[in-house]
Amino acid sequence: MRVPLSWLSEFIELKKSPEEIAEILTLSGHEVEEIFDLYKRLGEIVTVKILEVYSPEDLKEVVLCKVTDGRDTFTVLTSAKDQVKPGLCVALAKPGSYTFSHQKVEVKEVKNYRSEGMFLSPFEAGISEEKHALLTFPKDVPLGRSIYEILNLEEPVLEIAITPNRGDLLSLYGVARELNLITGWELKTFTFDKALLEGEPFSGEIKILEEEGCFRYLGRIFRGVKVSESPFFIIKRLFLCGLRPINNIVDITNYVLLEVGQPLHAFDWKKISGKQILIRRAKPGEKLLMLDGVERIFTEKDLVIADAEKALVLAGIMGGEESGVKENTEEVFLEAAWFNPKWIRLSSQRHRLSTESSYRFERKVDPEGIPLAALRATELILKIATPTGFSQLVDLYPRPYKRPLIKITPKKFAKILGFEIQKDFIIETLKKLGDLQIENETFKLIPFSYRQDLEIPEDLVEEVARLYGYDQIPDTFPIAELKAKAPTLEIKTERKIKELLKGFGLFEVITYSFIHPEILEKLNLSKEDERLKVLEIENPIASHLSVMRTTLIPSLLEVAKFNATREVEDLAIFEIGKVFFPEKELAKEKVHLGILLKGEKKLLPWEGYKRKYDLFDLKGILEELFSALKLEVEFRPFSTEPFLKRGFSYDLYLSGIKIGLAGAIKNFILERLDLKRPVFIAEVNLSEIYNLLKEKKKPLKIHKPPKFPSTFRDISFLLDKEIPFSEILSYVNSLEIPYFEKLELLALYEGPPIPETKKSITLRFWFRSEERTLQDEEVNTLQDEIAKKIFEYFKAIPR
Amino acid sequence: MKPEELEALKERALKELSSAKNLADLEALRVKYLGKKGEITQALKSLKDLPLEEKKTVGAKLNELKEILEEFYKEKKNSLLLEEEDREEGIDLTLPGRKPERGALHPLTQTIEEICEIFTRLGFEVVTGPEVESDHYNFTALNIPEWHPARDMQATFYLKNGALLRTHTSPMQIRAMLERTPPLRIIAPGKVYRCDADVRHSPMFHQVEGLMIDDKTSFSDLKGILSFFAREIFGEKTKVRFRPSYFPFTEPSVEMDISCVICDGKGCRVCSQTGWLEILGAGMVHPEVLKAVNYDISKWQGFAFGLGVERIAMIKFGIDDIRLFFDNHLNFLESFK
User: Fold this and answer.
1) How would you classify the pairing of strands A514-515 and A547-548?
2) Sorted alphabetically, which keywords does the UniProt record give (chain A) (predicted)?
3) What pLDDT is recorded for position A645?
4) Fewer CB atoms inside 10 Å of the end CB: C or N, chain B?
C-alpha cells in the first residue's frame, strides 16, 4: 500500500525521517518495500528557456518552440500559443517521463514537425489546480534542473507490504494508529460537527434480506449535489496513491477509503427503483453491467445491493454502470457497510475481480468504524459538492459485532517466548490493544474492534513480543532429546547415485516437472502407452508447460536442445526427479533417473583423440552404477520402446520387473526435434529399485590376497558375426572348468581380412589354484580342452 | 701381482673412475676394470697360477680392491645419474593434465545438501513427500481456509483432477506430524510450484521446511537455531535480524534477514539499499495447526520455518537471474564443479 507521508502527517506528528519511519515499520512487521518520491518518479521534468517561437502556416492550434536546457536544444509543439514567447522559462516534461495525471510523454510528429516533450501546467506538474496557464519560472532560473528541486518540492511515499491479517492498516489513519502504538507519537483523531449526525427523514427504505452476508449497513441521501471535478488536494492525493479521479462524489468515496480504510459506495438515487435498497443474494443468472464495462452473471452465492427491480452493485466489490454517480446526478445515496469478509472473498475469486473495496472487505473492516467513515464522507460532500440537504443516517446493525475475550497468563508468555518480558511492559502493551482486566494472575483482554486479528493468546504473545522488539529476545539453543534417525534408504541411495554419476563425469540438471504435451507425441508412443495419460494443469503458466511429465526424456531432450542452440553439442547429463501419473486422488509419483549422452566424448584434444559417444558408454555407466548399488540388472537387448533404435537398445530388468530402458534415440525423432545425432538416453525407475533394494541386495564377496600365482591362456578364433558375446560367456560358465578364475574379452575385430560373415575374438582365460602353483602342462591341457569345446560348439575356426 | 703393482692399479682405477665425465665413460671404465675381461677379473683369474700362500694374500687383497672399486663405481654412477637427470630438459610441463572425468551436482542440489547437512547435525530427520497435494494439506490444515486472503500470497497451480501442486513444503509439517508422535525434529526439502515467472520467480522452485515440536521449544530457541543456521551457511560473521511477519500457520511469526553479503550491510542494489537480505520465514507453530493433527496444544509447542533454496543459492553464488538454474546450460553447470 502507498502511504504519502504528507498525508500521513495529518494524523500523526512524524518525528523521524522517511528512512527512519520505514525502518520502524519494517521492524514492527510492516515491511516497507520502497521509499520513493512521487515527483522524482515522474521522470525528467526540467526547466527550459524558450529561444524562438514559430507559427508554421500548416499548423493551426499549436506553435513550435525551440527551447534549451542549457546544454542541448529541443523543439516542442504547444497549444499554449498565447503564453509562449522567447525568453520565457517553462517546465519541460521530456520524452519517457509522465505527467502527474499519468500521461506518458513521448516524441510526437505532427506534419513533419517534431515535438520532443511537453510544457506542463502547474496541474500537470502536480503542483496546483491551475490547468490553463503554463508553469513558468523567473528568467534567471538555472536551466536543465528538475523543476521540483528548483521549487523545493518533495512527495515521499512509502510502499508498505501490509500482511493479510492486518486489514486495519489499509488506510492512512490505520497506519498512523499503528505508528502511535509502536512509537507513542501523538495521534490526531477525527472530530465532527454534531449536526452531521442528524438530517431530514430518510425518504426510502433499506432492508437487509441476507444477514449472513451483511452485518451492518449505513445509508444517507444528499439532495441537490453539484457533481464536478474534485478540488486539487483530493485529486493530488488520489494520484499519489495510484488512483484516478472520476468526479467529486466518487473521488470522495475513494478518498475516505484511503483515509480510514472503509469502502463506500455512491448511487444516483434517482435511478433507484422503488426507493428501495435491498441487500440480498443474487438470483441465479441475474446480470449486471458493471463499472469496468463488463457484464457479469451472478449466482446465489453472490451478494448484491438491489432496488425493487434489479441488482445494482456486486456488494463490496464493484458497482453497476447504470446506478453510478455521473455529471448529471443530483441526488446521491451514500452507502457504508460491513459485509461478510468470506462472502466478498469468494465472490471476488469467482468473478476474478479484485478492487480496492473488495481487498479491504476481505481483510476485515472495522465494524465500529463505519459511522466515522460515513461522517467523514458527509463532511467532505458538504464542503465540496454543496448539497442543498441531506437525510438522517440510517444504520442497520442486526447483529452487532461481539469482540472476543482473550485470557492469558504471564507464564504463557514466558513458555512460548522462552524469555520473561517484564510484567509492566506486558500490561502497558495490552492496554493499548483493547480493554484489559487483570484477575489474579490472568490478563483478560477484549481487543478494540479494528484489531480483529487478535483472537487467541498466541496473538497477544506476538503483539507483546514484536512491540518489545524481536531482537531484544535472546537467542538460545533448545534442550532436546539426543536422538536422530538415519536418512531413509531412498535418500541415501539417491545421494549415492548422484555422487557416482558426478564421478563418471556427468552433470546434474534440474528441469521443470511440467512439459509440453506435444513433445510426448513426438516420441512416437503408441496410443495405449501409459505415459500419454498425463495430469493436466488447469491454469498452466504457458502452453509449453501444461502437463505433468510422465517421463524425464522430454526434459532431457529440451536441455540438449537448449544447449545445442547455444554452441554446446556435446553433453553428458543426468536428472533425478519425479514423474506423475493420474490416480483417484492426488497423483502417483515415481522417482526416475534419466541420463543423456550426446555428441563427442570429452578427451584430451591435444592428444588428437576424440570420438563420438556410443551405446557402450551409456551401458558402461549403467553397469558401474548398478554394480555400485549391488544390483544385478539384466540388459535385455532390443528394447520395445518406440523411440529407441531396436538394434541399439535395451530394456532393463531387475528381479523380472522392468525398471528402465537405455539406447539410441531413433533418427527420425531427432530430426523432428532438430537435434544432431547421436543421442543416447536411459531412464530408470528408482522407486522400483528402492522397493527391490529393501528386499534383497547382492552380498559382498570378499577377496583375500592370493597365496599362489595365477596364469592365463589366450584362445583366438573366428566365429559367426550373429553370435552374441553373452552366449559365449554363458557357455564358458556352463563348462565348469577346473581352476577357472575369470574370463576377459581381449580383442574383438570385424572387417578385412576376416570374411564378412565372421568376427574374430580373442579370449583370455585366467586360472588359479588355492592350494598350489599350477604346472604349465596342466594349464596347457585345460586350454586345449576349452578351445576344442568352443570350436565345436560355435563352429568356430581357430586362428 | 706384487703389492706395489696392486697399489698402483688401485690408484689408477680410482683416479680414472673419479674423473669419468658421463655414464658412458663410467661404463667403459667398469668394463675395463670390473668387466668379465677387466683387469681385476683377469688378475683374479691369474691367481690360480700362484703358490698357495701368495694366492691367499694377493687374493684377499684383490677381492678387497674389487669391493672398493665396485662401491666407488656405484657411488660414482649415482652421482652421475643425478647430475644427468638434473641436466635433462624434460617435457612441456605447462601442458594440461590427463584428467579423470568429473561432472558436477546442480547448484541447487549442492545448496539443499548443505542446508540438510547443517540441520542433520542438529538431529533433524530428513523427510520427503508428494508434490501433488490436496487443498487440505496445502492450505486448510495449515489454517488457510478457502476464503482466507493469505491464499493470495501463493498463486496456485491446480490440476484438472482437483488436486494442486504444492505451493510450499509446509504440507510436510502436517504429514510428518501425522506419521510421528512428538517430540520430533524434521527437515523436508523439495520442489514447490507457483504460478509466477520472471527474473526472480520461477514456476517451479525449491524449499526446505523445518519443524521442531516438543514440550518446551520456544521462540528464543527458534532464534538461536536459525541464527546458527545463517552463520553456518553464510559464514561466521553474518549478522541476522528478525522481523515480525505473518503466516497463517505460525504465531508469533517472523522473517529472518541476513546482512547483505554483497555490500556487507552498507547498502547496495542487491539489498535495495537496506543492507539486509530476507532469507526465510518462520514462527511458532499455530495452535490450529497442532489441532489439525490432534496434538494436545496444552502440552506440545515448537517452531517451523521454510526457506527458499534458490534465494539462498543466488545469494551464495552471486546469481541474479533465477532462470539460469533451470536452463541447465553446460557452461553454467560447469561453474559448480
Assistant:
1) antiparallel
2) Aminoacyl-tRNA synthetase, ATP-binding, Cytoplasm, Ligase, Magnesium, Metal-binding, Nucleotide-binding, Protein biosynthesis, RNA-binding, tRNA-binding
3) 96
4) C
What nine digits make up the cell of B87? 641436466
The verdict on A640 and A777 lying in the same domain is: no
- Contacting residues of B for A484, CB less than 8 Å apart: 120, 123-125, 185
CATH number at B270 reads: 3.30.930.10
Residues B32 and B118 in one domain: no
Residue that has been written with the C-alpha cell 489499509 in this structure: A170
**Residue A776, domain extent:** 711-798
Q: Is the dihedral of CA A562, A567, A571, A574 positive or negative?
A: negative
Amino acid, res. A283: K
Q: For the segment B117-128, what is each residue's pLDDT rounded down to a tens digit?
A: 999 999 999 999
Secondary-structure breakdown of chain B: helix, strand, coil percentages, each rounded to the nearest 5: 45, 20, 35
Q: What integer pLDDT is reported at residue B1 of this predicted model?
A: 67
Tell me whether A459 touches chain B (CB under 8 Å): yes
C-alpha span between A765 and A762 (Å, rounded): 10
User: From B329, which residue of chain A is nearest by alpha-carbon distance?
Assistant: A563
Whether A383 and A506 share a structural domain = no
**A293-340 pLDDT per residue, tens:** 999 999 999 999 999 999 999 999 999 999 999 999 999 999 999 999
What pLDDT band is residue B46 in, cutting at 50, 70 and 90? confident
**ω into A605 cis (within 30 of 0):** no
Q: Which of B34, B56, B87 is the last residue of a domain?
A: B87
Q: Is A459 annotated as a binding residue?
A: yes
Q: Which of A348, A366, A396 is the last residue of a domain?
A: A396
In the predicted model, residues of chain A with pLDDT beneath 50 are none
Contact B284, A418 (CB under 8 A): no
Contacts of B133 in chain A (CB under 8 A): 586
* B185 plus B324 within the same structural domain: yes
- Interface probe, candidates A453, A538, A557, A601, chain B, greatest B C-beta count within 10 A: A538
The C-alpha atoms of residue A675 and residue A668 are separated, in whole angstroms, by 10
Instruction: Tell me how far apart the terminal alpha carbons of chain B are, to the nearest angstrom.
Output: 75
What's the ipTM?
0.88
The answer to whether the beta carbons of residues B145 and B175 sit under 8 Å apart is no
pLDDT tens across B128-168, in order? 999 999 999 999 999 999 889 888 778 899 999 889 999 99
User: For residue A165, which residues of chain B lie inside 8 Å, CB to CB?
Assistant: 150, 246, 248
Residues of B in contact with A499 (CB under 8 A): 105
Residue A482: inside a domain: no
Asked whether the beta carbons of residue B219 and residue A465 sit closer than 8 angstroms, the reply is: yes
Tell me which residue range forms the domain holding B49.
Answer: 3-87
Indicate which CATH number applies to the domain containing A743: 3.30.70.380
End-to-end CA distance of chain A: 89
pLDDT higher than 80, residue B256? yes
Please tell me the total count of domains within chain A: 6
Looking at residue B62, its pLDDT comes to 84
CB contact under 8 A, B214 and A341: no
Residue of B nearest to A342 (CA): B147
Question: Chain A window 648-687: which residues touch B at a Cβ cutoff of 8 Å?
Answer: none
Residue A614 counted as an annotated binding residue: no
The DSSP code for A419 is: S
Report which listed range, A748-752, A790-794, B63-67, B188-192, is most confident. Answer: B188-192
Distance separating alpha carbons of residues B172 and A26, to the nearest angstrom: 30
Residue B92 belongs to a domain? no
Confirm if A73 and A84 have CB atoms less than 8 A apart. no
Q: Would you state the pLDDT for residue A297?
A: 97
Is the domain of A383 the same as that of A505? no
Q: How many CB atoms lie within 10 A of CB A202?
A: 16
